[in-house]
Amino acid sequence: MDRLKYLMYKPMQDGKTTKWVLLLSKFDIRYMTHKSVKGRAIAIHLAHCSLEEAEEIQGGFPNKDIIGIEVESWKMYFDGATNQNGSGIGVLLISPKRTHIPFSGRLNFPATNNATEYESCILGLRAALGLGVKELEVYGDSVLIISQIQNRWKIKEERLMHYHECLQKWASKFSKIQYQYVPRM
Fold first, then answer.
1. Is 80 exceeded by the pLDDT of residue 64?
2. Residue 31: which domain range?
3. In what order do the strands lie in the sheet containing 86-94?
4. I want to staple 152 with a disulfide (CB 3.0 to 4.6 A). Which of 12, 33, 107, 147 is the partner?
5. Same-domain check for residues 78 and 163
6. Predicted TM-score of the model (pTM)
7. Burial status of residue 35 (CB atoms within 10 A of its CB: 0-12, 13-18, 19 or more)
């Protein structure tokens, strides 16, 4: 299988490949199958290349963007909701270059509104880690969840303890993470 085709069309990438796809996406690259070039043809080309041409080829690669992969923090907005039709979760990741990456899902089990909020936050943290994010600003509209995550409020419901522990486990994998309450208005 061709590596570039795999990179461009894989539905869910890990952190390293996603960085490459984000870097390559600004160049409007389209994958086209190409016949292989024999090694001998490359050797012949290099043999006929002068030293000046070789220096031009080596100096023409702008690797500044590749070496300095984003160090700025990403932003994550999460929300969960429950009604008589079921429970849904949604996450929006925003890169430092303002690329928006939305995630959403439907829970296949009955859950409270607070549980859906925790589920959506955990989904967002896992997705951010999958993209290789190290610094994250998290925004949510649930006072209860944000206050519990920041350890300002105690967790009184037994079933939310598991969610809180799971969220703390994922949050510990970031070098820097901040939580912020955003009013629903």
1. no
2. 3-67
3. 100-107, 86-94, 74-83, 135-140, 176-181
4. 147
5. yes
6. 0.59
7. exposed
